[in-house]
Amino acid sequence: MNGLVLVVFDVAGTVVKDRDKVPEAFTAALEAHGISLISEELAAVRGSSKREAILRFVSEGPERESLAKTVYSGFRERLMERHRMPRHHRTNRSSLEVQVRSVAAGSPIPPGAPPSDRPGSHAARARRKQRAPSPGAA
Questions:
Q1: CB 12 within 8 A of CB 35
Q2: One domain for residues 106 and 79
Q3: Is the pLDDT confidence value at 88 over 60?
């Protein structure tokens, strides 16, 4: 297999407003195991690997690795809980995918455009296809 297989972007807090869900989940996971942080400690690990950051705060000892894994699992669970939205607040998933693809391709999304009018949407592609002259047309 040649070429690029997978590209992963960490966009939370940079491209996507996360409303401090990551730090909240991180501190809650640590606090669940009796580990408290002050804001300076949290700021010092912001943007770093959460696994490595957790290890910085878990005390040395024979159970350190096991506790760090447990805290990390708790962090992930709490983060997923914070990112879940009630069904009535969810956006159309395909609309979000279209927005991401359109922005990545440099195609502007008209403000307030419904999902069907956004560049790259199925409806927008169908309209372009209808407007395109057929091959051999004069």
A1: no
A2: no
A3: no
